[in-house]
Fold Serine/threonine exchanger SteT.
Amino acid sequence: MTDRKQPEPQGILSVFDAITIMVGLVLGVGIFRTPSIVAANVGSETMFVLVWVLGGVVTLIGALCYAELSAAHPNAGGEYHFLSRAYGKPAAMMFGWARCTVIQTGAIAGVAFMLGDYVAQLAPIGPYGPAIYAALSVIVLTAVNVAGTIAGKNLQLLVTFIEVAAVVAIILFGLFGLFGAGDAGGTGERAAVAPPPESAALGMAMIFVLLTYGGWNEAAYLTGELRDAPRNIAKVLAIGTAILVVLYTLANVALLSVLGLDGLRQSSAVAADMMRVVAGPTGEIVVTVAIVVAAVSTLNATMFTGARGFYAMARDMTVMQWIGVWDGRGKAPANGQIAQGLVALALIGLGAVTRDGFKAMVDYTAPVFWGFLLLVGLSVFVLRRRHPHRQLPFRVPLYPVTPIIFCLTCLYMLYASLMYTGSAAWIGVAVLAAGAPVLLFQRRSDDAPLQDALPGTLLPIQEKFDDDHA
């Protein structure tokens, strides 16, 4: 009876709030870094645009799979909850360990490094300036989110609107500000860069395109706090993905129209180079500030959802139960935010000793992330087979073709992330394996707390009924 009286997630997020958070998660720093890498791996301007559209289609397919799982099993634990229902608590706890030590905290550290790199350009403070700024950003945003869901949500709304406005400005400048700019960015005197052989190049391009689209899956962690989640989560995922595809495609068309394909290949800061062409040095400074805002948006949204995974995992363990306490006053997993921040700070410390902290964190997280995303995709089949007669609030269209495509994509990305990245990828896999002892501390089923659900629903009763009659 004690668990029933503890504060739990409440349905306080509207569809608009959730879409804003999702867009803020995805529309981050990647769009300011990856287009040049993608351009170097395609053979034509048409293919450059098509890979961004294809990446959006793959993202939409994944979002539809997640929509079915999230609508049927709304929970603040997101993927942790899906894996628990499909494969049992051991698989879910290994994912929880991976998320806490590799996936989410590695992503937080990577975005923090990107933020630190750009802030250090505006206000340099020495060779370790990026790492110092990265650490300070994690500390400040952890404090904001510990203050509560409302504070974190309001900050996210503000920075996401600024971020979207900056991307729209780049689109307008690129498409309408300078027709036929082509090679005007000062890159024309350099020799054209030939793309690599087509067989491997397209795959590499898709790796970075999907990296840029990454983060959409975090919307699943909002279902415990989304109003009428079974009906609304599909809207959030579909509308949010559509907005992202339009913004990313138009932004890349704008960059292409100003710099040209060779100019993109030769640029290490595509947005800054484009704005220098159309607006001069002032435009370059403005876009640098926009990138800082984008990094803040992505970092805050990633931390907002990430702590929900800490919360869900801790409630299934016999140790560290303080992490699984929901702060009723702030309506947030405050202890989970603190634990997440400490792990992220440790990873920033490790990344500070490498040549490129951002790349090290990308390599560190990639294979573990795609491995578990593959398991989540397969859980669509597992849960449908286990409960064939269950009424689902949302069904993925064109089943089973849609989830099969998603699973094959995840399988390829798992392979690519192990073959094409650095040694940090294998360190991430080793950290995952080192988490096996956490299984010794899982709660027995009769000791487990009541599952979180949207307040006012009968979801826990329905799921118990399904399990008993499967």
